[in-house]
Structures
1.
Amino acid sequence: MTEHLYGGDAYAQSCGAVVTAAGAAGVELDRTVFYPRGGGQPGDTGRLTWSGGGAEIVDAIKGETAGSVIHVLADGATPPPPGESVTATLDWDRRYRLMRMHTCLHLLSAVLDYPVTGGQVGDGKGRLDFDIPEAILDKEEITAKLNELIKADHGVEEEWITDAELAAQPELVKTMSVKPPVGAGRVRLLRIGADVDLQPCGGTHVRRTGEIGAVRVRKIEKKGRQNRRVSIELV
């Protein structure tokens, strides 16, 4: 199992580690700052270096073993052997944009208090799909409300509750398509401000909403009788 350093400190940009496995799929480390693709957030990219070698990391994905992270190397790269000491370094600019956008999507779900049917965090952009019957949404109004919450510079913190506590509060789960992982005994919640938003999430986020910067709604699309897609971007 890989130690997930990004879980305790999303701002950690690099770490020393030891290779525990290497093959065609990629490289596994005993610890990592790389977030593996999941929950609508892309996997991190960056670079792996070791004595006498180096390789670009083009993706990070979850391994077959629970908790493992596979660092996918660029085509043709020769991986370091098991037991090798390495340094894993993020493409920090990209990761930080993902953190800003992921946090902003939480704000979007607070502005539009409807069930979320899907979503995707992108590099500088993102979207959420909402179950909204015959709703007329205004891009300028949503943009203004998002930027108001961002400028208020609310704190962003994690909390933990037990599986049983989550089961007793189903209203905390906004996403209809992705359910929070249970079975480990506890679930991570992300809280924004005192009462702006609270929901389960395992992704990486900024510490304060002010870090997101200005955003705008790019477009609103009708994807079904009751499905509206709201796409936003950093500006």
Note: The mean pLDDT is 94.
2.
Amino acid sequence: MRNRLIVITGPTGSGKSALAMRMAGEIGCDIISADSRQMYREIPIGTAAPTADDLARVTHHFVGNLSLGDYYSAAQYEDDVMRLLPSLWEKSPVQILCGGSMMYIDAVTRGIDELPTISDDIRRRAWELYERGGLQQLRLTLLELDPVYYREVDLNNHKRLVHAIEICRQAGVPYSSLRTGRVKPRDFDIEMIAVDMPRDTLFDRINGRVKKMVECGLIEEARAVSHLRHLNSLNTVGYKELWPYIDGETTLDEAIVKIARNTRVYAKKQLTWLKNRPHRLIISNE
């Protein structure tokens, strides 16, 4: 009987973490987090990181293991999870990976193409393009370096554009020429479970979650790290909407509305991604 990795995913706010906790308790296994922001120890409120009680009940991996200034990628995550799993199989032949970071889940379940390690200098210069010229400068640069990928990529996703430019410059060849799209074989079985619920219910939960985060200290948490807002780790929903408020340029109510709206937009992107991934759907009415 082969080892099995159960992947629990779904849109933000759908209750996948609660399901993972219940299942891990029943199975007697750990939880491997697949949330790219819960790794940063300085921002547990805005990332809805597991509580101290959760961590005491079930061992979690990749939660609070990085600082905001640390560089990390989906490729590193793939390597780290693959190295971790053999020791977890000794504890239980079934393990759980839970989260909503799409690239991280794909990294484990499908694998990532072999790409060059980006030097600090190339990464700095790629981000400087965005800081100086915004999306338009990134688009023009990518069009010159890799017109094939330019026609495929989401031209409004600055992270994807920066990443592609980094790869082109580091490898010296177009990023598209390195993308094989092949799924890597794994020596364990993978079962993907997606948690979803009626849209009105999901969006109400998202709105309630944002309100609860604010009540639990999200504003204070954001203030404490606002001097690091230039870091990619803080270029995320829940924080970037608060910078104008912290700078006195908008009201708190306006910032909260934007956080909830952008969180709903992100949830829709997660659902679109899921449509192209084999999974078993669980509809929750909680």
Note: DSSP finds eleven helices and six strands in the chain.
3.
Amino acid sequence: MASRHDYDLITIGGGSGGVRASRMAAAHGARVALIEAGALGGTCVNVGCIPKKLFSYAAHLASDVADARGFGWTVAGIRFDWKTLLANKDREIARLNGIYAQTLQNAGVQIIAGRARVVDAHTVAVGDQVLTAAHLLIATGGRAVKPDMAGADLGITSDQAFHIDVLPRRAIVIGGGYIGVEFASIFNGLGVSTTLLHRGSQLLRGFDEDLGRVLAEELAQHGVTLEFNETPAGLTRDGDGLRLKLGSGRSIDTDLVMFATGRRPNVAGLGLEEAGVSLAKNGAILVDDFYCSSVPSIHAIGDVIDRVQLTPVALAEGMALARTLFRNDPARLDYANIPTAIFSHPHIGSVGLTEVEAREKHGLVDIYRTRFRPLKATLSGSAERVFMKLVVARDSGRVLGAHMVGAEAGEIVQGLAVALNCGATKAQFDATLGIHPTTAEEFVTLRERD
């Protein structure tokens, strides 16, 4: 390792990927500094996965309370306090921020607070401080963006949604991706009159089409108003509220508008282009299979490379990079069969190929689907129904994809991801005994092919 530099690795960005890469590099013997301008933990800990899941728990408790009546419970005097949820959420996030700092310090990583700028292939400036390293790692993540629309500043993004002072009476969520459906579910579950507006005709582009179709039906029966094939055209103040004008000419009155219309790589002001780093049109850093940019000493992982924007992916990329650079063990990540969950109401779990992808790659496929009322609903009276789907290669019998809409879908599909990575076949699924009575057992009892 080059002693002529201050460090072997300087990481810019203290999110999941940057922290993991820095910690693992230090474990491999590297001298590491991590620069972060904000709170440690990045999007996931501060304005993403963790607080969103906490909000989702809170919103889902409303339906749990309603379900309890069918099981003999008398529920009276129940009320929800938004301020309490915010305070408890903030306390947990602060705890996690501290854990991230302690973990880095225990690993021997120097934490530098400030905004970094890349000066050249080996040099970083933080305020008046200039530091050098054999390798630089950009792990600055992404940021939520608003559409180019009149009055867009009157709306919020998911980043601000975690810090609303007063829970609105009415809300419009714009966007049909996973962030949009999750926040529509959260607001609706907390008693907000919620509209989900999407420019397309189906939710969750990029996921199996059945998931978007089924989720739309479930959201509607939960009370979310769905506006498909509509675009926002302008936002104005109207008394104490807001008025959203639509592309169709209609208007909707509301108290809050949240844009879930996309994220962009966080590269502004980093000096990357001046340092010779090639960027994609959307600002994503272009890297090879080993996360090396067009400048050999500058690397990038996580949302800033815009491959798969998931926390476990950034973690895996960080570990692979540390092995490559400091253990002389070139490592790359296999992006196949990455499981994912969407914490809408109900949840979605998905792993492997969609039906469309499977037909394109494998030709003939067999589809197994089921939709049913879960046992809990027989007493609770809930209209929510579970959906499950297996996509199977006809020639080999290999299970190519598993998809689910229903309670704890992520917990169930996590286990199926292991099976898919092991190349499990439908016959092996069929030979596996189910745990009865559970929802999960349906994945090993599917027999009727479409």
Note: The longest strand covers residues 129-138.
